[in-house]
Amino acid sequence: MDTSGPVPPTRRLSTGEREQAIDRSAPVLPPALEIDENNYFENNAPPEYLDELARQCEEFVKMHGTGRIVLVTSGGTTVPLENQTVRFIDNFSAGTRGATSAEYFLENGYAVIFLHRQFSLLPYSRHYSHSTNCFLDFMEENDGQVVVSQQYQQQMRTVLRKYRAAKDRNQLLLLPFTTINQYLHTLRTVSVILQSAGPRALFYLAAAVSDFFIPPSRIPEHKIQSKAGGNKLIMDLDPVPKFLNRLVERWAPGAMIISFKLETDSEILISKARQALERYSHQLVIGNLLQTRKNEIVFVEPEVPETWIRLSDEQIKDGTEIESLIIPATIERHTAWIEQSK
């Protein structure tokens, strides 16, 4: 059953338009320091529900004792343009990589904290929630009872059993976010809670995180009026501090940290991933190109050659998910990290 759906067409900018739109001479922002962390979290209020999420997370981590726990971040963050939000800037991500990876972590015995964009793809339900068919197309009425159509019985039974197994073992904790601020506050809170797990904790940071935001002091309270700026809307955005180094050094210093690097230019993918490793001193960057991200990725690690993981033509034809190869390779590295930490 194909649940991927058609990709809507997008207009590509001409070379001249790209050069005008992007300042390629702009310096790369340095990692955030303690003062950047303090300034951001003091001036951007936490979500009202954060204490409740922290309570759930503490109970979940305690429940899984000495087992392995992975924090999977998934989906894109939004940047509200008004305090009472009508418009916002969004990131390209449906949460496919994160939701799919979470399933394979669960099947390999990990407890999973799934920090996800609200209404993005979720483990297991992803097989049906973003189908090209309406969910009701999988159902039929039989003697007044609503049942799964015979042609979908086997596949749905398999997915249901995996979901029930994870739920019965309390392996999966779902934590939602929508805005960049909600994401960062929750990430820091969960990271500090996971300190107790030490090297057993794995961070699999697959979320598409906004690079810019509007500080609270400059965000308008009400909806921006369409004629407020004449024929143009000009926005002044600040860069989001690069907190990955704070995660590595302070928030969860014993954990293994994996980040993702998505590019559209194959010529710079490896160099950008290497720069991220050097800048933030974490353990692994998983690089992928927008055009081929479902069929190939590359592991970029300190002091070793790159490792490519690619689906064969036969695997692509059979519908193999590349995450079924990524997660075992990731777990091998996490096992080595735990042993090294001893």
From TrEMBL:
SUPFAM superfamilies per record: CoaB-like
Entry-linked InterPro entries: CoaB-like_sf, DNA/pantothenate-metab_flavo_C
Domain of life from the UniProt record: Eukaryota
Transmembrane parts of this sequence: none
Pfam families xref list: DFP
Ranges where the record places region Disordered: 1-25
Domain DNA/pantothenate metabolism flavoprotein C-terminal, chain residue ranges per copy: 67-119, 201-294
Sequence similarity: Belongs to the PPC synthetase family.
Name of the protein: Phosphopantothenoylcysteine synthetase
Native organism: Myxozyma melibiosi
